[in-house]
Amino acid sequence: xxxxxxxxxxxxxxxxxxxxxxxxxxxxxxEEVDGFVPHLGGAKANVSVVVARHGGRAxxxxxxxxxxxxxxxxxxLAVEGVDLDWLLSVDGVATPVAFVTTDxxxxxxxxxxxxxxxxxxxxxxxxxEPAVDGCDALFLGTSMQVERDHREVARTARARALExxxxxxxxxxxxxxxxxxxxxxxxxxxxxxxxxxLVKANRGELRMLTGEDDPIAGARALLGxxxxxxxxxxxxxxxxxxxxxxxRTVPGVAARAVNATGAGxxxxxxxxxxxxxxxxxxxxxxxxxxxxxxxxxxxTESWGAVS
Length: 307
What we know:
Blueprint: E1 10-14, E2 18-22, E3 37-41, H1 43-53, E4 57-65, H2 68-80, E5 87-90, E6 97-102, E7 108-113, H3 128-133, E8 137-140, H4 148-163, E9 168-170, H5 182-191, E10 198-202, H6 203-210, H7 215-224, E11 229-233, E12 239-243, E13 246-250, H8 263-278, H9 282-299
Parallel strand pairs: 1-4, 1-8, 2-6, 4-5, 8-9, 9-10, 10-11
Antiparallel strand pairs: 2-3, 6-7, 11-12, 12-13
């Protein structure tokens, strides 16, 4: 039985929320697109929704425009049960839109409209410490840290959470195309590892952070850099958990994939929900990982990341 929501610890999810405008059939080239369908999007918005759907509590800290798309996103998130206390609607900001196409292998490509993924994100500086103080755990990544003032918001949140002894979950979510210098992205990502209860990364991110091709060796390198637990997502092959004295591989689940956009976000959301409900422990991660992998596989069978 799921406890009443007010008794479940709340996770602050810090980052991007945007509209995913998706072409709902595979195309080889962008020029073949014949239309787009709007979906709720943004990695952190996706994670927040998954947390709420799996019996957890998530508060999304981010920025949308005080425009029709911003209002549309707020309504969608509210319907899903995501707390919006620190989702700011800012005048003069255009809510970002990602135009998404997928290929025959369900792999997405993006064309962004607007000023990056997190326009106006610096406005959170005025509320970020109360936001952290009002929650019980923190989830963040690098995609909101491209601009210097945005980076300071994330650093303040992380420092505040660690100072208060709160669990921090870090997902590098490395989008090198957003950065003028990819080396800056990797350096910022490495900052997020020390003190993290959990680092969740895919194979490519793990290689960029550690230089290791082998997932177990890369995960161990992140443990050596200060993470307590590491989950490596392996695409259709499942996921791997590595912690002190623990290695667990969960095989992938067969799926008729059309869009892999939200698979990693789904894994993160399921794990966050279970950790909040069942305790922040490696054993909780090990027990929840098969459910997370199965949910991620199901997520690829719909066009929207959290449809």
